[in-house]
């Protein structure tokens, strides 16, 4: 196969087949294989950037992206059915599950202690600044961190850049206290509803945005990690940030994440000439409904997946009518959400406003109220954990715990 399908410069007396580039050439040139071209290109990029030219180390981000793309490549049916393919997938998953701390423990337990002291207790601001620049320290912090936000980024070669990201807003997120019952309720409803998804409505100040941030940034042991594993994209509406209200940014971000995370969907979008035409912010902004039709409705019409994927939109009522934009994200969704693929489901939050509910009748409504018993129980637990540490003092000043409650 190498002699037939590889380039002339590989055809030596003894064909060299150990280089991954040879395999990629065979997959590309032999029409018997149906591996998406973008999947092969990503693996080729990894090979060229990280292995071909003697690079001796990779940072944590490069490692994460390389393992993800290599595993995606190996999971292609033509490869995963072979014994060597199955073995390679197992080995990569094992490598992926190890963070830098595991490697330090294997080779140098004393070094682990030294790293942790430096990471957790820098002696001054100057030392902390230096540590922040170290990829090794970032890797340790990544292992220690309980939360990882779903990124709206793509790896090289990036076939289509996201139009707008929300990292800064997520960094300012408050911590979710309690509400495990609500996380469970949202997840269970999303996974069982026959509708287009779930819309959580509640009064201002209920904590809807905090819940959304928790779902996007759940740690491995957190409530919400089940939904996060299938979270494809998200959008955060801000009434005072015009960019967050533009439907074209939502559409292009979602398309970008489809291309990045679902190769079959990416291939369907990128091979559609009209979709590719619309994948420019100026074109999409001129006709957002036509843009969502070309890139998502028409391109993905024939695709099916065994598992659903989720899209989160926070505060959709703040992406309603605005003098700054010609058509709102709420209007675009009201016109097209029912035509999107069935495997794409939405979790949307909003204040309990009639116009929002009427524009999205395809959504199952979960209306929550602050005075519900579950919320009261969460408040009790918070007060107990934070105010009644010195029980005798509070009882003397304010009465018993029961009276205060």
TrEMBL record:
<protein>
    <recommendedName>
        <fullName>Nephrocystin 3-like N-terminal domain-containing protein</fullName>
    </recommendedName>
</protein>
<keyword id="KW-0677">Repeat</keyword>
<dbReference type="InterPro" id="IPR056884">
    <property type="entry name" value="NPHP3-like_N"/>
</dbReference>
<dbReference type="InterPro" id="IPR027417">
    <property type="entry name" value="P-loop_NTPase"/>
</dbReference>
<feature type="domain" description="Nephrocystin 3-like N-terminal">
    <location>
        <begin position="181"/>
        <end position="351"/>
    </location>
</feature>
<dbReference type="Pfam" id="PF24883">
    <property type="entry name" value="NPHP3_N"/>
</dbReference>
